[in-house]
Amino acid sequence: MAINTEKEVCNGNIKIIREGSAEKRVLSWNDEQCIGCGICKDVCPVEAIEMGPLGAIFKGIIDAPKLDIDNKKCVLCGICASSCPFNAMDLEIDGTSTKELPQYLKIKKDISLNQEACVLCKQCEVVCPRKAISIERELPERKTLVLGEIYINKDICVLCGICAEYCPADAIELIKNDMNPLNLNPYKDIVVDTDACVYCKVCEKACPHEAIEVVCYKCPFVKRIKIPELYKEIKGQTIIDKEACVSCSWCEKICPVNAIVVKKPFEGELIIKEDACNGCRACIEVCPCNALTFPKSEGQGKKSPRLAVNPEVCILCGACVNACPADVLEVKRTKINMVGSKIPSWENALNKLIN
Amino acid sequence: MPDHILSGIKAIVAVNLRKKGKLQKEIAEYLNMDRSIVSHYLHGRHPSKRVIRVSEEIIKLPVNNAIKIINSLSDDRDITSKIIKELYNAKIQVDPDRCILCGGCLECPHGAIYKDSNYRINIDHNKCKLCGNCISTCQTDALILKALPNKLEE
After folding, report:
1. Nearest residue to A307 via CA among A290, A295, A320
2. pLDDT (tens digit per residue) in A126-164
3. Is the ipTM of this complex over 0.95?
4. Are residues A12 and A92 in the same domain?
5. If we measure between CA atoms, which residue out of A293, A296, A336 comes closest to residue A312?
6. Domain that holds residue A115
7. Which of A155, B44, B65, B151 is buried most, with the most CB atoms less than 10 Å from its CB?
8. B107 and A1 in contact by Cβ < 8 A?
9. Which of chain B's residues have a Cβ under 8 Å away from the Cβ of A77?
10. Would A341 be classed as within a structural domain?
């Protein structure tokens, strides 16, 4: 007997549940993770998925879920979950995600990091469009790199504060006095914070009374610090959130030491038919990789392309195609990177993504 | 009326078994019925010729359709499956090119469908009653009744 398939909607997220005597299946979809690429809709063998008005949703014109799943049609096969490049869908069979099961086929995308090679430069953290990379680094204290001595002759010093005004490291401070009729001086002392002082000698040169003497032992401006030594002292780690990563490979492209390797889910190209573009920006808002842009014109009179894509960071997910109201974009996929066990019917479904 | 047709089909099965050399007693046991009725079947005394004719037409239908009618004649799945197995060399099979592993068919009322360790769908033909429930459940037409030529026509 066919069993009932229930649907639960909670905070905009959808759960499709089917519990029978043989097994319990739960298909869950997360609106926040979903970027509306529509791959799930394209691979669904029973046409149970319908996309929402993506352009309007991403431009904030309307608040609606990016897709809907019809529980009357859904058979909980999980092809959608295995093909979602953004981890927005998951199928659990008796509590185990099919993504964890080698018996299932999935679209492969991956990011791997060679922590040994990573120099913790943080550039990838800055460029990642999904905020999927965070770098925690501990630097040696500055005073271990900059050594020296500073001496202020308080017999000569008039507490004018000129040195403090010049100090690029804000290391010199005048200590205020409690002013009263019995104590007329505004300042009572001058102190140097040797943790902040870089022994640059600016104060020495600035002091009109020659009250300051500075000696630099390991001044970076005089004698270069050996970088390898410093590098050895830098500790830290790069943390990649693989759930959030969309494998756009932006980090890979800019990594100065090639410490990141990214495997994209598809091969192919994104075709832009510029003439049709009306500049609505829906595609730019939708793109999970920030791969699309309206280039700035190069000088006056020159016609710049209306819309451009950087194929290096495009993952060919097709979200822009769904969002575009004017049929400007077309995804031509030539290859899908798959991993897992061979399932002929699943391969047929996934091959629908190749056009 | 359904009982008449069921009798007609049983009579045809009984005659088939007799031709294969089965004894009246064995036929009665197989069809789980009284020996005297089997005797009527074998001697053409019951059911009427008209009923036999209708029954023969049903049996000649494409096997997918025929089993639907035969299954509808009785709720006793033991007897219907015996009749179907005797009339047709039929088995329900999984077409791996179509099966999407959705597991909808696992709710087989006879416990004949199971997942193997690879999560692939398999059918235990000893338990299968050929009731066709899974065929109508499957959304991708991956379960098919595979029949060798109709035994009657051999």
Report:
1. A295
2. 999 999 999 999 988 777 777 789 999 999 999 999 999
3. no
4. yes
5. A293
6. 110-139+234-263
7. B151
8. yes
9. 100-103
10. no
